[in-house]
């Protein structure tokens, strides 16, 4: 395990106190003990440090913690993540293609990969160096997976889809299922073959039981660095920009385009064929039915600027009392009218 | 690959121009090149044909495309789907029960099937001619799957459920999970065994990671030709009619009945024990809590006729300004009352 | 099969009529025939008993059913569930670790277990007596599963998670996927390793394709007796109390705490870091953004007491007519003002 000095070198952070202490574990303030490092990102929680028996704390400049070694840096939350990676983020040693995995002889396998039992790898699949396929992963014919990916158990990738480097896919996600396309034929629905693919660029993360449909023709595209939470639905021919966040249970209908650095809140729905600008936030459970400009926050169904929505939903709550006001006004006007006419 | 004349014969369409050209691929207008066929379903996009180097276009009667062979027909969108099927929809040659598949000796297997590695087929299962089970499909005891089905990777079908002919199930779908039924026993919940099944009739399509629960007693039924998008939840004892469309992330609670030719929009929720008439549309994200008549469009939570909802949601957006109006009216009335009384 | 007297003994119920009749099946009133037992929980349906050819009925005290044997008890619905269990709820005989299952040599396996083909069991896993792993279950290293559990096909449990006794997990559920945690690093997002686990206590049921994320640090906890319907999302560090019901497609964001004996309706969403009191009900599709007290019913987005919501949503429906009222009031006031001023 590393010393506090070693962690500081890794982070480019400053040590205050004994840098030779060996750190075994990251732990929350309340449960940290000797050998643990903890962190304070929010000054509100500084008081809790008094009682801790932790060995060190990650903290912003300008604070004092008597008796506690400090790792001082500008972004304790990011430092916390990096220390956690240093302490707990080791990749297991590669195990090769294990007994009980079925790999087609035409597949091209990089070095230092692991393919667990129960995986099925189709024809002409390419798997990059250092990638791990956990048990039960299925890669249909022609799939490409880049280097240093973690493809968790039960992930199912259909024919021809392409996954970049350092992509993480949580268990049960489906990549490349048929888009939902049918042509009415007068009686019912005729299936439109979905002959496109899905492309996930580098550093994308895909949550558990997510569904990303292949394009009808062309590509359903998730760009570099985007993170997708569990149970999200991405329909055919959608494009998601770079470094965008899709929170759990979001649904995005066909051919819509979401920009870079957006955040789409949980359970929100986006209609098809719309365009969301860069740096836009959509609140949880919103229903967005038309294009949204860049850099703003939207809420509600149909979506509106968040401030408008706050006012509108406060007003909805007060509607019953407003209704009473309106009927009392109605009565007072009737009386006034009577009075005025009588004179 | 077929010639344009051969495709025309297949569709019952008319060729204008050189019918002997060989078609290799369907492509969107913008990316189509020599050897490709493209299509124009919407006259708005006709102008784009000027610059195309495609070999042919599928188009309605009454248009001219100098220098481009035309496949003329009344329903270009349907023709597009059929040409796509002709060009790209070939089923792979059957491979039988492959090494690494586990099939119980009591299972009845039709001719020309494929069972990929990682599949597990239980006792007394019946699989019809031409059906493909992709890797990792699990059929519990007593399951029946009809002819020419595509059951994609990781689909899980529990005991006794029955699937018709030409059914397509996308990866990860679960058919026949226990309905959510518990009897309060004074302290907590006592599980009610779910002893019914799921029946999917012919030509149904089920999306990725969909869940269709088995009936408590009897049958959860999805009728002929109905198409279900990804991540939809269908509870126990539900009946879905024929040729109905359930868009992604819809949830339908127990014992409800949806009619024929309905469309239920994405993320909509239907309460339990209600009945939706034929040809009814429910807008995305609606919450339907009571029966709906046939042939109309409903929106909102609770659901209301779509036109009402449009007015109501416009009014909600204007609520804050209406609120100001009401308080200004209130003041004016007070002043009037004062004035009138003073006289 | 049991006699009516035997079922009565099991339930502590009273038999009226011929207790020696052998019961083969539970069936709904409309389809029950000779050898079947049916039940009436709701006195509304008593009339239907006239025409039944069932052999017996489960019924509350105080009713008469000439010609029909009766199992009389205070809670017919609970009795129905228990009889159904007696008739149909037998566990299959254990089959041990079957061919085609991959179990690491360090795993500790209890007696009378079944591990179907296609299962993969990692290092140092512990499986309790009588538990069944259906085909394709994956238990990562260090997972613990208690006694008499049913873990259905394709369930994926990540490293170190712990499952209690008598837990039922429906097909395709994912337990222990990474929580959705990322630290902005100025350009994009840096992944925060999720080093906690998931704990499911005794008698929990988890629905099909549910996702329960592991804690960032510590535990995501589902307490004893809680029942989770299909496609529910539970984020990292959430705690769900005892005997709570989460209906299908609910989403609960990170670190929130739901009390005991709550019911969260279908498609409802709970924001992160909030606390829901005991015995609280949240209506379907609600969006709860702040703490809720115990013992009440909440609806809407943002959530409000159910009665308020009923009034507010009725008022929303009447908004367009209220709008007309307000503008007519406006005109009448203008006329009055004119009249009064003119005098």
Automatic annotation (TrEMBL), chains A, B, C:
Annotated catalytic residues: 236
Source organism superkingdom: Bacteria
PROSITE patterns from the UniProt entry: HEXAPEP_TRANSFERASES
Short name of any one Pfam family annotated for the protein: Hexapep
Gene Ontology terms describing biological process: lipid A biosynthetic process
E.C. number: 2.3.1.191
Pathway, per record: Bacterial outer membrane biogenesis; LPS lipid A biosynthesis
Catalytic activity as recorded in UniProt: a UDP-3-O-[(3R)-3-hydroxyacyl]-alpha-D-glucosamine + a (3R)-hydroxyacyl-[ACP] = a UDP-2-N,3-O-bis[(3R)-3-hydroxyacyl]-alpha-D-glucosamine + holo-[ACP] + H(+)
Gene Ontology CC: one annotated term: membrane
SUPFAM superfamilies: Trimeric LpxA-like enzymes
Molecular function in Gene Ontology: N-acyltransferase activity; UDP-3-O-[(3R)-3-hydroxyacyl]-glucosamine N-acyltransferase activity
Keywords: Acyltransferase, Lipid A biosynthesis, Lipid biosynthesis, Lipid metabolism, Repeat, Transferase
Residue intervals of the UDP-3-O-[3-hydroxymyristoyl] glucosamine N-acyltransferase non-repeat region domain: 21-85
UniProt-listed InterPro entries: Hexapep (IPR001451), Hexapep_transf_CS (IPR018357), LpxD (IPR007691), Trimer_LpxA-like_sf (IPR011004), UDP_GlcNAc_AcTrfase_non-rep (IPR020573)
Subunit structure: Homotrimer.
UniProt family annotation: Belongs to the transferase hexapeptide repeat family. LpxD subfamily.
Free-text function comment from the UniProt entry: Catalyzes the N-acylation of UDP-3-O-acylglucosamine using 3-hydroxyacyl-ACP as the acyl donor. Is involved in the biosynthesis of lipid A, a phosphorylated glycolipid that anchors the lipopolysaccharide to the outer membrane of the cell.
HAMAP family per the UniProt record, alphabetical: LpxD
Record's protein name: UDP-3-O-acylglucosamine N-acyltransferase
